[in-house]
Structures are given as C-alpha cells and as structure tokens.
UniProtKB/TrEMBL annotation:
Signal peptide feature range: none
Keyword tags: Membrane, Transmembrane, Transmembrane helix
Highest taxon, organism lineage: Bacteria
SUPFAM superfamilies registered for this protein in UniProt: Multidrug resistance efflux transporter EmrE (SSF103481)
InterPro entries: EamA_dom (IPR000620), EmrE-like (IPR037185)
Gene3D superfamilies: 1.10.3730.20
Entry protein name: EamA domain-containing protein
Record keyword Nucleotide-binding present: no
Membrane-crossing segments per the record: 34-52, 64-81, 87-108, 120-138, 144-168, 180-198, 210-231, 238-258
UniProt GO cellular component terms: membrane
Amino acid sequence: MQMICWNYAIASLLCFYWFKPDLSHVSPSNTPWWLILSLGMLLPSVFLSLSKSLQTAGIVKTEVAQRLSVVLSLGAAYFIFNEHFSSLKLIGIGLGIAAVLCIIYSHRSSHTQASSGSSGMFYLVSVWVGYALVDILLKYTTGLGVQFSVALNLMFICAFIFSLLYVVLTTKQIGSSTNIFWGLCLGVVNFANIALYVKAHMLLKDSPAIVFAGMNILVVLLGVLSGLIFFKEKLKTSTSLGLGLGIMSVLCLAYAMIV
C-alpha cells in the first residue's frame, strides 16, 4: 500500500507537466468534484481490493473478476454512452471474452487457490465492479473538454491524499525508502497507462467499446506472451486457442474502426 500511495505522487507530477492543466481556474462550482473524489477514492481502493481478493479468493478467481469487468464496461458503452454495436464489433467482443476465458481456464490447475468464503466473495465483487467503474469514469472525464486535464490531475492528487491517510493510520509511517522508491517507479508506468488509455478514448470518442475490449484483451494476450518468453511457461492447448481467438478479436475490433 505504501508503493501504491507514492505512485500517485509521481503520477500527479507527471500529469501536471504532461497535460499542463490550468489549476488557477479551479472553483467549487465549475469543477466536477464528484468525479474527482470518486476516482480519487476508487483508484487506491481497487488496488487494495485486488490484494485482498488474491489473499482470500485466489489468483484465478481474481483474474476472472478483473478481466470480466469488461462486460460491465461494454454494457455502459451501449446503455450510457449510446454506442452503436455493429455485427463486427459484437463478433470481436465475443471472440475476446472467449479468449480471456480460455486463457484463464488453462491456468485453473496451475495455481493453488485460497478458500473463498464470504470475505473472498466480497472482494471478488469489489474487483469486478471497481475496475468497471474506473473504466467508465475515466471515459467520462474525456468528455469534460478543457477541464479534462484539471480533473485528471486533481484525481491523482486526491488518490495520493486518501492512500497516504490510509498508510499513516494503519502503519504509523509514510513509508520506507525502498517502498517509496519503487512506488515512484510504479507511478511512471501507472501514469503512462492511464494517460494513454484516456487518450485512446479521446481519439475514439464514438467507440468506447473498442477501447474497453481492446485494452482488456491485449492485457491478457501480452501477459500470456510474457509468461512464454520471459518465464518459460509451457503452452497448453487452451492457451493456444485463447491466443488465436484473442488475435482474431483484436483484428475484428481494429477492422471495425475503419469500416
């Protein structure tokens, strides 16, 4: 949690220098505080829920909950952002979800899972709903126009303040030098992740489903490829099928953007 806390410190600084928000015009009436405070609390809370879910429900169930949050995001793309789903988009999304399930299935016996009681179910649901809410609210920030960069910067600052309060109250310290250092390194990657994700939503403002699905599918595919290349994991039949379906899904979604 100390690393998570300090990652938001560097993320807020990078956001300020990259997007150059005009913080001089921040006002109680014109600033979307509900959005800023919601994301400021959600971002570190989702990290914490993910950790608790891994401890209580196990890695496989947590991975399922995290990746299938895309189903809620896609529902939001249709019902909230009024996106039109062409047949090609639907095929790509369906292939992507099938790919994720195949890859998760291939890992079902590779990890020792913890017993999942009521607390495990609570954290699984928190991960599932939390990741989808973050996706949806970040998409919403892209529609704020000139206030987008201000909201993003204040969101990181709030996340840092909330997580710092949590760390101080639970550990009575602000963090060890090692955790602060790695937290700052994590912040660079985390900022790049969110900044590029938001940029994708801005460039594809009429196709949020492609961003929601594409990101989640590619995360799983790149994770599997990393396991094969760097950790020398064996390629199972279901993993191979998942990779093939995932590649077909990404191609369908990419082609849907240009037709």
